[in-house]
Amino acid sequence: MFLTQAVNSADIHVVGVADIDVPKAKSALARTGWPVERYAAETLDAALASGGTCVLDSADRLIENSQIEVILEVTGNPLIGTYHAMKSIENGKHIIMVNVEADCMVGPILQRKAEAAGVVYAMAYGDQPALICELVDWCRTVGFDVVAAGKGTKYLPEYNYSTPDTVWNYYGFTEQQLASGDFNPKMFNSFLDGTKSAIEMAAVANGTGLIPQDEGLLFPAASTDDLPTIFRENTMKGGSLTRRGTVEIASSLYRDGTEVPQNLRWGVYVTFEAKTDYAAQCFAEYGVLTDETGRYGSLYRPYHMIGLELGVSIASAVLRNEATGSPTGFRGDVVTTAKKDLRVGDTLDGEGGFTVFGKLAPAHLSLERNALPIGLAHKARLIRDVPKDHTVSWDDVQVDESLLAVRVRRELETEFRAEHSDSTHVAV
Questions:
Q1: Which of 1, 55, 7 is nearest to 33 (CA)?
Q2: Helix, strand, coil share of the chain (percent; to 5)
Q3: Cα separation, 327 vs 107, whole angstroms
Q4: Residue burial 342-352, b: 16+ Cβ < 10 Å; e: rest
Q5: Residue-wise over 153-171: b if at least 16 C-beta within 10 A, else e?
Q6: Is the model's pTM score more than 0.90?
């Protein structure tokens, strides 16, 4: 999606595309509108000299090239993404973290490293977390109290236990549709089983200061007209918002499986409160979408265009030295949760798989539980039984402590555990 916009952008030079499958990357360029001669450069130096693009199998060579200004990390792999981000920062490159799987796992510590190195670490504009952060920034800048922010998605409670074998039935895709494109069952299952929503809302929490609820995401059904009522302060007890200033998802399905009219499945929203009676009066005078009290309003964007909008992040980093959303702390985490009873010797298969799903938690609860982040759940071997719906902890698994992503995550937990502890003592 980014490439199809970049091919006609005179102000952005895609110097190189790195992929472990070079023919597949060239095919992607071709089907997104790139003439063959535009990606025929055999080296990065040739691409820089000609204005063309080099397709190669080494991300390291891209990152180490001194003339490249920005790296887009788009792998979706939290382990590889951590490595690419660290290396980009070390090489003085702005890093646009399209890889929200890595961002929610180690983003707060990566942002600090980027700031120390004088480069920008940014969420990807067009993806929902960055757009939500933008709405929250707007609210606070103009002087409203932010009550809740989030996005829409298709959700029912049974989806938490979906597997790659059942995912297509839930989506309703036909065999013909599946044969026509690149459909990864684990990736699509992570969208369905709540993991991707948890990942994105953790990123929003870390970027805005909004705090996840102790119960995690509740996915109430809501139309666009319902947003000010459903997501206002303390209106959803027993299945609802219990904390002011939180993140939450609007389901596009009622619990009986019927579709919510005017739903926000592809969009983002923010719900806010007027601070004065006069501001509430202005809401009425200007037709702001509000609840029945007139004090709570919502603003929403009905869709997002993901990679088509990514040029905003690049321009913002290079021209303004500003991030389009970035972690400012560690407030939300995605904890590994058992989809079924797990036994000693079982090997976890990570995001979107058969064994676990990711559940949103406040960072302080994740640290207290010593929870294993979902990004490190792939290939982790159980050394203790974990019942269905229980959190998998570091103590329950064997992980490869030599992995860079594991080391960076350990660094994050050590640093922020101390900060959370200090904050608690100050509050007391």
A1: 7
A2: 40, 20, 40
A3: 6
A4: beeebebbbbb
A5: bbbbeebbebbbebbbebb
A6: yes
Cα-based distances in Å from 215 to 179, 233, 246: 39, 16, 12
- The residue type of 269 is Y
Q: What is residue 244's predicted lDDT score, i.e. its pLDDT?
A: 66
Q: Are 231 and 152 in contact (CB under 8 A)?
A: no
Cα angle 144-150-153, degrees, rounded to a multiple of 5: 150
Q: At what angle do helices 100-117 and 78-90 cross, to 10 degrees?
A: 10
Question: Can you tell me whether residue 265 is helix, strand or coil?
Answer: coil
**Span 294-313, pLDDT tens digits:** 999 999 999 999 999 999 99
Q: Which two tokens stand for residue 333?
A: 């985490």
Is residue 104 within 8 A of residue 128, CB to CB? The reply is: no
At residue 180 the predicted structure's pLDDT band, cuts being 50, 70 and 90, is: low
List helix spans (H) across 118-267: 128-142, 167-171, 175-179, 185-192, 195-208, 227-230
- Residue 91 and residue 64 in contact, taking contact as beta carbons nearer than 8 Å: yes
d(CA 185, CA 196): 13
Is 55:80 a contact under the CB 8 Å cutoff?
A: no
What are phi and psi for residue 405, nearest 5 degrees?
Answer: -60, -35
pLDDT in tens, 16-48: 999 999 999 999 999 999 999 999 999 999 999
| Residue 351 to residues 134, 339, 379, 423, Cα–Cα distance (Å) | 27, 11, 11, 32
Contact 216, 227 (CB under 8 A): no
| Closest to 120 measured CA to CA, from 336, 263, 316, 401 | 316
* Model confidence pLDDT, tens digit, residues 263-306: 999 999 999 999 999 999 999 999 999 999 999 999 999 999 99
Which residue intervals of 75-194 are DSSP H helices? 78-90, 100-117, 128-142, 167-171, 175-179, 185-192
Which residue segments constitute the domains of the chain, with CATH numbers given? 2-126+308-320 (3.40.50.720), 129-155+194-303 (no CATH), 332-427 (3.90.1210.10)
Quick one: which H or E segment has residue 147? strand 145-153
Question: What are the backbone angles phi and psi of residue 264, rounded to the nearest 5°?
Answer: -110, 35
